[in-house]
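Whiteboard transcription, Tuesday session. T.W. wrote the structure tokens on the left side:
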């Protein structure tokens, strides 16, 4: 499915209205957020929702969240950007991937990791009257966009909150994120975040 076509239709509808909708954007790091914020802030008031208890070790978590906080303070956008940090509780992650630890990257372990973080974001969006929710995850060439949007659709129905379908790699989105990372000297990590992806990358 071409999720960019779906996104284009939604954004075109928004442009035709006077109202600026509110978007809860689950974000994983500053580089992945850079292009997405540049792109979507033309259409939404955005609140970044930082919920990533999968990140290992805690020092890495702190480095990533500090980077995205600092970036959003200096990055100029058309509409406002707010920031919410959820609790860093790694038990949330290990509980949701229990039994899948030995599976490799791009496996059901990753699917479950996407799902429980997006579920938390969808709940927050619903409970706090956001118009839409989505995630930056689809900008990564290492992430399965079909899985991400499948999960988004399930959560849209589960919580009765609009999910913004997307594949942010499209329209050279990933390339633009690299350009912005270089321009703002952003820290680009070399593994997804969890202890398993870190060990898998270190083997190569």
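and on the right, the sequence the group agreed on:
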């Amino acid at each position: 499915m071409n999720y960019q076509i779906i996104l284009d239709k939604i954004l075109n509808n928004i442009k035709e209205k006077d109202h600026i909708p509110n978007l809860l954007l689950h974000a994983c790091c500053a580089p992945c957020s850079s292009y997405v914020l540049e792109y979507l802030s033309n259409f939404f008031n955005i609140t970044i929702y930082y919920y990533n208890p999968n990140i290992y070790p805690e020092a890495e978590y702190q480095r990533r969240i500090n980077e995205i906080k600092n970036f959003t303070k200096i990055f100029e956008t058309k509409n406002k950007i707010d920031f919410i940090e959820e609790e860093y509780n790694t038990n949330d992650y290990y509980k949701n991937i229990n039994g899948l630890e030995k599976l490799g990257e791009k496996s059901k372990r990753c699917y479950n990791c996407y799902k429980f973080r997006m579920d938390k974001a969808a709940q927050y969006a619903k409970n706090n009257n956001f118009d839409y929710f989505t995630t930056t995850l689809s900008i990564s060439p290492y992430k399965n966009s079909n899985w991400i949007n499948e999960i988004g659709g399930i959560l849209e129905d589960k919580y009765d909150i609009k999910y913004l379908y997307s594949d942010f790699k499209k329209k050279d989105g990933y390339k633009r994120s690299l350009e912005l990372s270089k321009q703002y000297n952003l820290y680009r990590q070399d593994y997804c975040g969890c202890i398993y992806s870190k060990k898998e990358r270190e083997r190569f």
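Someone added at the bottom: Residues 3-202 form a domain with the Rossmann fold fold (CATH 3.40.50.620).
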